[in-house]
Structure formats: structure tokens, C-alpha cells
Write a structure and sequence with these properties.
The complex is a heterodimer of chains A (307) and B (317). Chain A has 307 residues and is α+β, with helices and mostly antiparallel strands. Chain A contains nine helices and 13 strands. In chain A, a hairpin with a 3-residue loop joins strand 2 and strand 3. With 317 residues, chain B is of the alpha+beta class. In chain B, helix 4 (214-230) crosses helix 7. The chains are: A alpha+beta (307), B alpha+beta (317).
């Protein structure tokens, strides 16, 4: 398996970040997850964290190195996440259970399987176009589909954030599954919370990421989205991979070929460490950023090289 | 809140391998110096120093950053890096070039090329009422080459105005100050406000900012062309939205400039962003599409020009 992966979560203009992202892979299987804790409810970030962690833990247990049945895995793990949130509510005797959206995607044998509840989205981008995307479990989407309102009205509708399926609610989540979708070389799978897709569009992202290095293009998309989100913008998060089947894939890509059978690699933010400034820099990060800019100057500045 | 100004580094100060000659400008987020590099070439050095978060006293090198502001200071630094990253990748004769980037005095510095010249703002003030149509068309067509490159890198400038368009001594324009392009903010951090300049900022710059796009920079281009003629910016977009007080350029300067150029200005300054040129290319195309007969004022030429303008209008519907 070969792919490039990039994930990032930004606080936007909000007081805290209730989005969570993670990815995990074995030699033959890959899991991508994104969750958006719900702002109207207390502890939204706890719900999101529990959901993401449950999926990752299940994946680490069951992918050896393949999952026997990806859809069954998604169904069980998402429901398990829902119950874990309810359990947490009971243990902590919270008045109301925290809630979260979820989108999770498994890739194995070159086939993508995804499932979601709520309005965080998965986009499959191919050749600069959106090949597939999840349908939000929101009232707005229903109104749109019934032709009651226009796209333009939907963008500013007061109910645009109301969803009817989530984890942690009083009823079990309504989980929607994709088809088995074979991936082609160069395909991008992009999971995003509404802080990102709400200020840009799938089409724009498809164009922006066409042929681009995700490690450069996705942060730029995020930076632009954060600016567009403005001073009160929502949290925005992304997990994206580019699927690479050809042997001459880029240097930044991950090859799982040499991984041991039982080995699992995971990238997930630890719980409870939400700094007041998501963007706060350590001294090391400052040095790294400067180094990066200097090498970009060297690379792109013909005159400087000539000197 | 009254804000104190930051004290610049002293003239003659050695900063890494550069020697500071003098301060060029002082903004809310940074100070720009003119300096000499070791080879004796002049460069511009921008020092990250938001005066609401970091204050440097006279005679000091390091700014005083309180514990309370350190988080926001570092956050803003990240934005400064984004500006540096964006500019480092852009290599275009009409976009300012970044030459170096380094850390000193508890803050960071960006070194940029410097050439003798003046800003379009200075040019306008010096040549009040004498800015020719030829000059406007020529200048903006070339400046837009740079802006196209910026947009091609999925960046927006977001603070285009005559004082951010620099003219080399041969009049070739350079886009400078991409400070707003990286402006990202935190709700609880009123210290780092979004930057825009009333009159040059589009309606999308205000409020939710979700509709920002190339068309927003294009509004600012229109406002800058307007300023070339009027000597000042058009009325601010937020005021215009409350009550339209913009007198269309076509009416205001009828006869002094070609109707075609005046229409382009009005087109760019449309309050509805969907009614403006949607890309720099579309605007450039219009600017070079039809070069009007030399300089003489165009009087009553409803004949052929009217027809051409009619064609132009229809094309853009």
C-alpha cells in the first residue's frame, strides 16, 4: 500500500477545538477518521475524542493486517463509539450526553469503504473533480433535496448546522454506508468537518488538489479557509490521502510494504491537551518554519542561486 | 485604547549580516527597514512586531512581551511565517521577492528585494489630475500579471491599494506587503484584528468573509484605478451597502477618460461580487482589449465607440 497522508485541525475563531482527526494503518489496511463534537452540547470535544479513539482502538485490534469485513467493522466500531459516549455520560453523571458527528473510511486491497453519521463529509476527488461525496444528515440537505430551498439559501439558513444523526444522542446513530469503491492511482480521499467544507466547495478543493502535493496544498486550503472563516470561524479539520499505485510515487508518501504483520502506526491527538492557542509555536517549530522558508527561497529564487 | 508606537532599531545597527540604514515604514504589525547586505545591495527588512503585543522601548533591541501576550505573539508569528512561505514560492517580476528569513531579538525578520522607486500612492499624490489613461492601463495590465501569479498559487492578497503597489524607476509595478494574505485570527484575541483598508476593501472583506475570492482582490484593483483618477479611494464598501453613495466613474469622468476604461472601473467596483470580473484574466483581457485613441479627451463619440462599448457590455453579461 502506498499513499501520502495529511491531517490537520485548526481552532478557527472559536474558544476551543471540538474537532478530532486520526489515521491508522497496518501493512494492508488504512483507517481515516474525523469527528466534529457538537458545539451546542457540553463536552463536544470529549464526544469527538471518544468516537475517534474507539474507532482507532478497534482498528488496531482487528486489522491483522487486513480487516475481515470493512463494512461490518465500521458498523460495529461506530456503534461502539456511540455507546462509549453514553457510558461516559453515565459515569460522569452528566445532565446531557455530549454528541459528535463521524466519518470513517477504510481502504484495503485498493478499495475504499466509508460510513458516516452527521454532517462531516468525505469527498473522493479524481482528476480535479468530485467523484463521490457523503450526503449530510441535516435538515437542510433534506429541504434541498425536496427542492424547498436553493443552494444559496442553504448556505445562510439558520438551521444549517442541525443534524438528525450523530453519536451520543438519545437514539442510536443512523449510519450511512458507501459502495465498495475501487481507488485509482492519484485519487484523493478527503475527510472534512463543516468548518472547512462550509467555506469552500468540493469542486474548488478538487481543482486545488489536482496533481498537487497534499503536504503543501492542503495546508494552503486550510489557511485560506481559516481566513474565510474570519474572526468567528468554526473549527476546521481535514484528513486527506492521495492513493499511489505507481512505483514512482513521491518521496513524502508512506509505503507500508516493509511493515511487520502485526504492526500498526497511528496518528491521533492525545486527549486533554488542547492548548489555548492551537497555533502556538515552540522554539523548535520556529526553527523548523524558518528552515523551511529558507529552503523554499533557495529553491524558487533563481537570482539568489546565481549569487 | 491608545497604542504606543514601537521604537525602531537604531540606524547603523548590525542585524545578522545586514546593516540597517533607516526605517522605511511603521505599521501595526511590523516595521520595515532599508538595509545593506554584505555585498552592498540595498534590501528591505520587515520585522515582525505587532505593537499591541510587543513593545520595544527606546534604546532596546528586544521587545518586551508580557507572559499574557506570549501566546498571541507566537500565534501571530505563525501568520508571519505563512506570509513568508507564500512569498518564497512566488517568483515573478511583479511580485516582491523574498531573499532571506531569520530569527533575532526574540522575533523574526523577512528580507526582501528593494529597488529605487515609489509607491503608486506617492505617484498619485504627486501627479494629481494628471494620471493618463495610458499609464493606468499599462500599469494595471502589468500589475495584474503579478496578481495572476498570486491567485495561481491559491492565495489572495486581500490588502491591495495604491500604497501596496510599488513602482520601480522604470514604472514597472511590484506587489508588496502580503501581510493581510496570512491574516488569521482568534476570537478572544482582539489584538490581532483582520486587516483591510476602507475604500479599497470589498464588501466581502467585512463580516463573515466567506465569499472572499479573486473577485475581492479585483474590487481593490478597481478601487486603486479609481484612486488614480480621483486622487483618493472610492466610498467604503460597508457605507455603500447601507446607502449607495458611489457615483459611477462613467458619469463622473465622462469625456476625460474613455468610456471603456471607466466602465471597467465600475465593473470591478460592483457591490455584488458575482457581477465583477471573476478572474484577473478576464479583467486583463478587458484592459488590453481595446486601446483608445491616444490621449485626447473623448467627447461625443456615440458612433463607433458606443457600438464597441455595447459589444463589450454584452460580452460581460
Amino acid at each position: 500500500m502506498k499513499f501520502t497522508v495529511y491531517q490537520e485541525s485548526r481552532q478557527g475563531g472559536r474558544g476551543n477545538n471540538e474537532d478530532r482527526t486520526a489515521y491508522s494503518y497496518t501493512r494492508d489496511a488504512l483507517l481515516l477518521v474525523i469527528a466534529d463534537g457538537m458545539g451546542g452540547h457540553h463536552h463536544g470535544e470529549i464526544a469527538a475524542q471518544i468516537a475517534v479513539q474507539t474507532l482507532v482502538n478497534s482498528f488496531q485490534r482487528e486489522a491483522k493486517p487486513l480487516l475481515p469485513d470493512p463494512f461490518l467493522f465500521l458498523q460495529r466500531a461506530i456503534n461502539h463509539g456511540h455507546r462509549a459516549i453514553i457510558d461516559y455520560t453515565g459515569q460522569k453523571q452528566l445532565a446531557e450526553s455530549p454528541r459528535t458527528t463521524i466519518v470513517a473510511c477504510v481502504v484495503q486491497d485498493g478499495i475504499a469503504y466509508w460510513a458516516h453519521a452527521g454532517d462531516s463529509r468525505l469527498f473522493l476527488l479524481r482528476g480535479g473533480r468530485v467523484m463521490a461525496q457523503t450526503r449530510d444528515h441535516s435538515r437542510i440537505r433534506l429541504l434541498l433535496e425536496e427542492g424547498m430551498i436553493s443552494e444559496a439559501q442553504a448556505a445562510h439558513h439558520p438551521d444549517r448546522n442541525k443534524i438528525y444523526s450523530c453519536l451520543g444522542g438519545t437514539t442510536a446513530p443512523e449510519i450511512e454506508y458507501s459502495r465498495k469503491t475501487p481507488l485509482e492511482h492519484g485519487d484523493v480521499l478527503l475527510l472534512a468537518t463543516d468548518g472547512l467544507w462550509g467555506v469552500t466547495s468540493g469542486d474548488l478543493m478538487a481543482v486545488a488538489l489536482k496533481g498537487a502535493n497534499l503536504l503543501q496544498a492542503v495546508p494552503m486550503l486550510m489557511a485560506q479557509a481559516e481566513v474565510k472563516g474570519g474572526p468567528h470561524g468554526d473549527n476546521l479539520s481535514v484528513v486527506a490521502i492521495r492513493w499511489e499505485e505507481s512505483p514512482e510515487a513521491g518521496e513524502s508518501s508512506i509505503s507500508t510494504q516493509t511493515m511487520a504483520l502485526h504492526e500498526v502506526a497511528t496518528q491521533m491527538e492525545e486527549f486533554g491537551r488542547t492548548p489555548a492557542y492551537k497555533g502556538e509555536l515552540s522554539d523548535d517549530e520556529i526553527e523548523k518554519a524558518i528552515e523551511e522558508i529558507r529552503s523554499a527561497i533557495e529553491k524558487y529564487n533563481p537570482r539568489k542561486q546565481g549569487q | 485604547m491608545a497604542q504606543q508606537a514601537n521604537h525602531p532599531l537604531p540606524d547603523g545597527h548590525r542585524l545578522e549580516e545586514y546593516t540597517i540604514e533607516r526605517q522605511l515604514s511603521l505599521g501595526g504589525f511590523s516595521i520595515v527597514y532599508l538595509a545593506d547586505d554584505p555585498a552592498g545591495h540595498q534590501v528591505a527588512i520587515k520585522e515582525y512586531l505587532p505593537n499591541s503585543l510587543a513593545l520595544r522601548a527606546a534604546g532596546e533591541l528586544r521587545p518586551n512581551i508580557t507572559e499574557e501576550h506570549l501566546g498571541a505573539f507566537r500565534y501571530g508569528m505563525k501568520c508571519f511565517f505563512e506570509e513568508g512561505r507564500a512569498l518564497a514560492r512566488l517568483s515573478h517580476p511583479n511580485v516582491v521577492r523574498v531573499l532571506n528569513f531569520f530569527r533575532a531579538n526574540d522575533t523574526v525578520y523577512m528580507v526582501m528585494e528593494y529597488e529605487k522607486g515609489r509607491t503608486l500612492q506617492e505617484h498619485i499624490l504627486k501627479h494629481r489630475d494628471k494620471v493618463s489613461e495610458r499609464f493606468i492601463r499599462g500599469l494595471f495590465t502589468r500589475m495584474l500579471n503579478g496578481l495572476r501569479e498570486v491567485h495561481a498559487h491559491k492565495l489572495l492578497h486581500l490588502d491591495l491599494k495604491p500604497s501596496n503597489i510599488y513602482l520601480r524607476s522604470n514604472n514597472s509595478p511590484v506587489l508588496i506587503d502580503f501581510g493581510a494574505a496570512r491574516q488569521t485570527l482568534v476570537q478572544d484575541q482582539p489584538m490581532l484584528k483582520p486587516m483591510y483598508t476602507p475604500g479599497y476593501a470589498s464588501p466581502e472583506h467585512y463580516g463573515e468573509r466567506r465569499d472572499l475570492g479573486p473577485w475581492s482582490d479585483i474590487y481593490s484593483v478597481g478601487a486603486s484605478m479609481y484612486a488614480c483618477i480621483a486622487g483618493k479611494a472610492p466610498p467604503a464598501a460597508d457605507e455603500r451597502q447601507k446607502e449607495e453613495c458611489y457615483l459611477p466613474a462613467v458619469e463622473r469622468w465622462q469625456g476625460r477618460y474613455s468610456e471603456h476604461l471607466l466602465q471597467i472601473i465600475d465593473w470591478c467596483l460592483h457591490l455584488d461580487h458575482l457581477q465583477r470580473p471573476q478572474s484577473v484574466f478576464a479583467l486583463q483581457k478587458a484592459l488590453v482589449e481595446q486601446v483608445p485613441p491616444a490621449v485626447q479627451p473623448i467627447a461625443e463619440e456615440d458612433g463607433w465607440l458606443g457600438r464597441l462599448v455595447g459589444i463589450f457590455r454584452n460580452q460581460n453579461k
